[in-house]
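Students often ask why we bother encoding 3D structure as a string. The short answer is that it lets us treat folding as translation between two languages. Here is a chain of 348 residues written in the first language.
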Amino acid sequence: MLRNKELKRFVILFFITAFIAITSGFSIDWRAGILCSISSAAFGSLFFIFTRARYQNIARISEQIDLVLHNTDHLFIAESEEGELSILQSEITKMTMRIREQNLALKKEKKHLADSLADIAHQLRTPLTSANLILSLLENNSDRNYAADSQSSADYTACINCSNEKKELLREIKELFSQMEWLLASLLKLSRLDAGVVVFQRSEINADILIKTAVRPLLLSMELHNITLYKKIPDTVLIYGDLGWLSEALQNILKNCMESAGDNGKIEIICEDNPLFTEIIIHDSGAGIPKEDLPFLFDRFYRGKNSEAVGYGIGLALCKTIIMRQNGTISVKNHPAQGAVFSIRFPK
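And here it is in the second language, the structure alphabet:
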């Protein structure tokens, strides 16, 4: 207790005051001196007892705070009686709970980061392994490649087949590198969005223009797969957001719907507007989404229970992040008749 300078000064002043009071009492009458001595001793003892109890409580709280600093999982700070010490203890308890929640969040984030890095490494390893195998095949084929003018007709036919095989392998390796390029670009976008360095250019966007911008790069692929696109979008509906990012989010959804619908499939885009929100509904004619996959469809690197599922589990996660960062919401469900239904809402 005496380490406290204020308490030291108080004790010194108390003894000086008590000495003066006792001396003055004895100078008046011996009974007055004894009364002053007893009173000073009583007040001093009571002050010492209460001060010692207060410092014990403070020491106990200090020990608990020290445990917090050492990342103790189980921590309990006992309640004190009413007073300023109780208020301090209550605030420290709140701080302790907040620190504990932050520690748990950091542990979860650290685990999520480790899992994400492992998933990224796995996703990149797969196309790289395939590309290396194809390069090995190309090397082996080049050793057996002969000039066409010095070979017999049978060798000439074999050379043509070898050339065709090379072209097919080169086309496949080009697709693999394109997939890796898309994967790295998507991961970079996700990391920029997570870091909060992306600045959205918010402005009023006509819903019809937004849908056309998102659909335009996919029209050729839809035509090749004979996918029919139906649109029902009022001309007057406006959405507040970033045209570039929102069109990319819609493209990711449309790509997913195209894969689900398959050849000769159908995709329907409907835009509805009411006083509460603007909603974009995208419905495909595919087989729908398995019930066990619905809750995790927008999770990063989730590819569903089906191990043969295509993709990397990034497109829909990126889509959700873009929409949520612009105050929107996205959900998915299976249509009662057929296919999946994606619903994107922007509140007014």
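Translate back mentally: Residues 146-150 have pLDDT under 50 and may be disordered. Keep this in mind for the problem set.
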